[in-house]
Amino acid sequence: MSPSALLSDRQRHDLVLAHLKNGVHLNGHSTLSKKASSTNGFIKADYLLDRNLHKAFPVVKGGKGNYLFLSDGRKIFDTTSGAAVSCLGHGNERVIDAITAQLKTGTPYLASTFWMSEVVEELCKELINGTDGKMARVYLTGSGSEAMESTVKMARQFFYEKDKNTPRVNFVARENSYHGNTLGALGISGHVARRAPYTPFLMDNVHHVSACNAYRQREEGESDASFVAKKAAELEAKFHELGPETVIGFICEPVVGAALGCVPSVPGYLNAMREVCHRHGALFILDEVMSGMGRCGTLHAWQGEDVVPDLQTIGKGLAGGYQPIAAVLISHKVVKALMNGSGQFIHGQTYQGMPVQAAAALEVQKIQREENLMKNVRVQGAYLEERLKTLLGDHPNVGDIRGRGLFWGLEFVKDKKTKEPFDLKMGIAQKLSDTAISPLFNITLYPGTGTADGVKGDHVIIAPSYIVTREEVDYIVKVIADVVHSVFSTI
Q1: Across-strand partners of 209?
Q2: If pLDDT is split at 50, 70 and 90, which confidence band does 52 have?
Q3: Nearest partner of 289 among 129, 402, 146, 401, judged by Cα
Q4: Around 332, how many Cα atoms within 13 Å sit in the side-chain half-sphere?
Q5: What is residue 20's predicted lDDT score, i.e. its pLDDT?
Q6: Tell me, what's the pLDDT at 91?
Q7: Which secondary structure element, helix H or strand E, spans residue 181, and what is its range?
Q8: Residue 443 near residue 436, CB atoms below 8 Å
Q9: Which of 42, 120, 148, 149 is deepest in the core (most CB within 10 A)?
Q10: For the chain, how many helices (H) and strands (E)?
């Protein structure tokens, strides 16, 4: 039963209003005093440079399945898998045993400059098999940002191997996109607010076209085919503006994650954009760090329409949070260019291809495959969509409910008809997240801003683990609906 179900509407309204007005964060306690914070089950860091220097955070003592256990005795339902990472939930014994076994060999780390590990090669074979052999090789990294950084370099080297004086220097990405936090990855990104402090440092050879956001861009009555044709024409025009011979590639997320809140591409879009790229000899590059590795109901999001990329980044669901690992999947034609050229990728990192990382990721992928968890993602994802639309579809401030698989977003608007976003200062998404994790509700929501124009706009992401059950989906949606109604009753 939802915790808030025990409260009357009036009581719920008063409690939520008190929480939001009195400087309460996350699990309901004030962050005004370190002493008070530490005695109430959470910590304001004195030594860690945390995400927010003025905020205290609840202390997690453990986790099992879909739950996190806090030091104050509360049990939190992890509705978001962290940041869409913990795809198998918490405390999976098979993965823990695989990591432990690798640690006991005495070689959790090996320098990739000198050595090869069987478990690393086995992981890469598993990943290539997961593409049905449509990709050829895997480059392992430690994070999604590193994977995108590596992809940018590899894409350039693809052309450099053929012609040291190649004119191909430009990338095309999309507005309101987010591809990582390293300078190269952030340079590819089109998220205005995240780029703003670092704009002088970012590449000036990255150009942006509009996102594929049907909710905010599609004209009334416009078909998928017509909408996609406009997007393809826009990319075609950008190629000609830059000079088609100067473009390295086009980069996009099949389902936009943190930047827009689970906005899926319109059917036919990926194929149309790939055709523009290949017509001009450029690479078609997909960022599946957040939307990939099963999150959208197929192992790779592109497999839903069988639109094979030339390069692809993967990350969060690769090892389910049990180890920090990400990767670049590389097509046959890119590998061939490297093999016929220098024979190497001119890039490297200390912590790439670590055996302990590979052991965790390999076990996570085996579990997904052996237990057919992609079917559960599709079945429970369809039910999650149905319940969200039933309970929140008519809410006056829920502008859009969109997603795929177990990757869903709610976009909030001030006016449902005009789609006008709330004032940024109101902090709508964060209020929803803080209220959700309070003792009133005890669940997580993943908040995001910039949804409407890169600065304004609020959304939350719902991304439960792949082991979620139908009964748990019912619980998740009921509590989220309570959270939404509670917060907007105070505004």
Answers
A1: 174
A2: confident
A3: 146
A4: 5
A5: 47
A6: 98
A7: none
A8: yes
A9: 148
A10: 16, 20
Say how far apart CA 453 and CA 193 lie, in whole Å: 10
CA distance 50 to 63: 22
Written as one string, the DSSP assignment of 289-333 is TTTTTTTTSSSSGGGGTT---SEEEE-TTTSTTSS--EEEEEEHH
What 3-state class would DSSP assign to 398?
A: strand
Question: Beta strands of 150-202 (E only): which ranges?
Answer: 170-174
User: Can you list the domains of the chain with their CATH numbers?
Assistant: 3-77+373-488 (3.90.1150.10), 93-370 (3.40.640.10)
| Residue range 331-375, pLDDT digits in tens | 999 999 999 999 999 999 999 999 999 999 999 999 999 999 999
Q: Where are the beta strands (DSSP E) in 210-279?
A: 247-252, 255-256, 263-264
Amino acid at 158: F
Q: Report the Cα–Cα distance between both ends of the chain, in Å, rounded.
A: 26
Hey, what are 339's tokens?
A: 């093999």
Q: What is the pLDDT at residue 56?
A: 87
Give the whole-angstrom CA distance, residue 102 versus residue 394.
Answer: 51
In tens, the pLDDT along 4-46 reads 444 555 555 555 555 544 433 433 333 333 443 454 676 888 8
The answer to whether 150 and 141 are in contact (CB under 8 A) is: yes
Which among 74, 45, 43 has a CA at the least distance from the CA of 59?
43
- How far is Cα 39 from Cα 409, in angstroms, rounded to an integer? 35
pTM, two decimals, is 0.92
Alpha carbons 129 and 403: distance in angstroms, whole number:
26
Give just the sign of the alpha carbon dihedral 249, 255, 257, 261.
positive
What is the per-residue pLDDT across 215-245, written as a single tens digit (0 to 9) for each?
999 999 999 999 999 999 999 999 999 999 9
Q: CB-hemisphere CA count at 13 Å for 422?
A: 22
Please, are residues 32 and 23 in contact by the beta-carbon 8 Å criterion? yes
Given the structure tokens 């014994």, which residue do they identify? 93
Query: pLDDT tens digit string along 438-454?
Result: 999 999 999 999 999 98
Return the structure tokens found at 326.
């990400």
